[in-house]
Amino acid sequence: MGETKTLTPERLRAFAPLGALSDERLRELAALCRVETVPRGGDPFRLHGLGGQVVYLVAGELKVSHAGGLVEVLVGGCDAALRPLPNELAQAVAVRAITAVELIRIDEHLLDIMLTWDQLSAQASDAAEATDWRTLTGAFRAEILTSGAFAQLPPSNIDALLRRFERISVKAGEVVLREGDEGDYYYLIESGRCEVTRRVGGAALPLAELKAGDAFGEEALVADGQRNATVTMRTKGVLLRLGKQDFIELLREPLLKRVSRAEAERRVAAGAVWLDVRFPAEFQHDRLPGAINIPLNEIRNAIGPLAADTEYIVYCQSGRRSSAAAFILSQHGYHAYWLEGGLRPPGNS
């Protein structure tokens, strides 16, 4: 078996239900499909099976022998082959390629998310003068939809988000939010790049550079405080903006998972890791046993280096900084919980 030529959106459009996807989504999907060839006499499901996959027979003929002696022949290119192969084929007594065959494999979870987003996007785009969200694969590309914040949202929240996001154009050099201002909006970058800076000793210290698909502005909204950094566009671009109340209702509440001290300690005993987001001077003073220290202002730089298969219990002194850090981690697909009330809950000395 081996991979063959690259797929085109036009080729995918012939298959059901792929034809329902937008042009932009089909182009993205074409790059994520696996194309396999199976030689004559081979079993296409011996190595990879059908579990978790949507598989199409593009070309060639398959002989399927079922229990009870029933035999059928599947022919690529016919009308029946334009639908996914049934999962029951994996349970057949034998499957053999009568001729060399070509298959397309698509991750079932990925395709389901794409179809859900495109259908909800089409509904949200029906309103007069509404944005056609199906074209915005910079902000809503497959990688983000399957492993980021949006992968964890119920469909009802997705539909509401698409209806409440405001799309704005920004110029190179434009300051989108300024350190010290009150938090008012959450931003998602559709296109362009921006720089995050903080004033230190009278100078602007660069903290991060953000690109399409990245979000910013959530820290002040989660912690209900002032902006702790300035974000300036390095290039012209397009941003999606969400008001504070909509952010709290549709994103913060579903993504921000809180735990009590007792529950946190139970999770740590089961393998979770304490993550202290205070400054190093605070961390050295009264850290929790086994904790690692990544200050809130450095948490974005830890996206990637932090183990994705580890559960983190995020804490600080009061819970303000840790809730913001836990939300940022959750946005990027991490299993992060914040210690409610922090190390010094109200009423405790």
Automatic annotation (TrEMBL):
Residues 149-251 form the Cyclic nucleotide-binding domain. InterPro entries: cNMP-bd_dom, cNMP-bd_dom_sf, GlpE_sulfurtransferase, Rhodanese-like_dom, Rhodanese-like_dom_sf, RmlC-like_jellyroll. Residues 268-349 form the Rhodanese domain. It comes from the Bacteria. SMART domains: cNMP (SM00100), RHOD (SM00450). This is Cyclic nucleotide-binding domain-containing protein. It comes from Azospira restricta. Gene3D superfamilies: Jelly Rolls, Rhodanese-like domain.
